[in-house]
């Protein structure tokens, strides 16, 4: 497992795609092994995983949209996504 710092830059792994499923009315994460339905918090983080934006920047951007966003919370979400093998680091 990677140590996720504020300067880490997450991206979706190759073959992983975040899309909005109109039927389910929610985001879904498509990857070769299957489908993952992330909660709203995880989907908001995943939308910002572009391989350029740092964890600190993701936290700031989410903080403008939602109240009480902490870097540790973003790091925790990214750790879980890394464990599921859908996020990697550049």
From TrEMBL:
<dbReference type="InterPro" id="IPR022479">
    <property type="entry name" value="PqqD_bac"/>
</dbReference>
<protein>
    <submittedName>
        <fullName>Pyrroloquinoline quinone biosynthesis protein D</fullName>
    </submittedName>
</protein>
<comment type="subunit">
    <text>Monomer. Interacts with PqqE.</text>
</comment>
<comment type="pathway">
    <text>Cofactor biosynthesis; pyrroloquinoline quinone biosynthesis.</text>
</comment>
<dbReference type="Pfam" id="PF05402">
    <property type="entry name" value="PqqD"/>
</dbReference>
<keyword id="KW-0884">PQQ biosynthesis</keyword>
<dbReference type="InterPro" id="IPR008792">
    <property type="entry name" value="PQQD"/>
</dbReference>
<dbReference type="InterPro" id="IPR041881">
    <property type="entry name" value="PqqD_sf"/>
</dbReference>
């Amino acid at each position: 497992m990677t140590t996720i710092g504020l300067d880490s830059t997450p991206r979706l792994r190759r073959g992983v795609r975040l899309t909005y499923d109109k039927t389910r009315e929610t985001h879904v994460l498509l990857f070769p092994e299957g489908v993952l339905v992330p909660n709203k918090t995880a989907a908001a983080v995943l939308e910002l995983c572009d391989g350029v934006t740092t964890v600190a920047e993701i936290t700031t951007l989410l903080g403008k949209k939602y109240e009480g966003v902490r870097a540790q919370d973003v790091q925790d979400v990214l750790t879980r996504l890394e464990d599921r093998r859908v996020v990697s680091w550049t």
